[in-house]
Amino acid sequence: MGNVSNRSLNRRFLDDFDTQTKCGGEGVAVTAVSQRRFAHRLQSVDVNGMYSAGALARDSCRLDASGQSARIEWQECTLGGSRPWFLCPECGRRAGKLYELDGAYACRICHHVVYRSQYRSPGERAADRARRLRSRLGASPQLWSPIGEKPPRMHLSTFRRLRQQIHEAEEQFLDWIEEVNRQQTHDALLLEKRITHVQQLVADLMARWHEVDGGS
Ligand SMILES: [Zn+2]
Known about the structure:
Blueprint: H1 4-24, H2 29-32, E1 37-38, E2 43-46, H3 47-52, E3 60-62, E4 69-76, E5 82-87, E6 94-95, E7 97-101, E8 104-106, E9 113-114, H4 122-136, H5 156-215
Parallel strand pairs: 1-9
Antiparallel strand pairs: 2-7, 3-4, 4-5, 5-6, 7-8
Helix pairs in contact: 4-5
Zinc ion (ZN) binds near residues 88, 91, 106 and 107.
């Protein structure tokens, strides 16, 4: 149960996984929430970008070639000047960005847009944390790779603390993967049971059908 050899096996598998999450950026969690609309996948317009591009009229802005537009509201800044906001065409709330979905622009609340970081699983967040801490120590971002020497001018106590935090984050990541594996095994067993059950039902029906058939 959760023994060392299992863990080292997992680690080997995880080296690939780690690379995948780094390259693909989405990893396992996204399959579970694929119906979510991720901000980075949607076309969006940024009010400040439009402003600097000189695309804002006094009270409206054209959003795309199809001629859709949004109203603009100017907010007075305490230090003078004013900054523009879109008014969401759907709800009228102020928004810095509008997202395009099925040809219509609206704020992220109306389109139920989520940022990828909000939907990262606990395991992925732990892996991110480990990589961030690793980069602070000048170590390779590859999880479980050697951390190496203390950077010059860093206190030994800081170095030890960060190194400890890296180990903890990496262990958390591993725990999460094991949990996912357990869940998948559990689901697979359940599915197998259901299939057996259905096969049994079919066999029973066939037997009864033969009985009826033979009896008539
Ligand atoms: Zn809205």
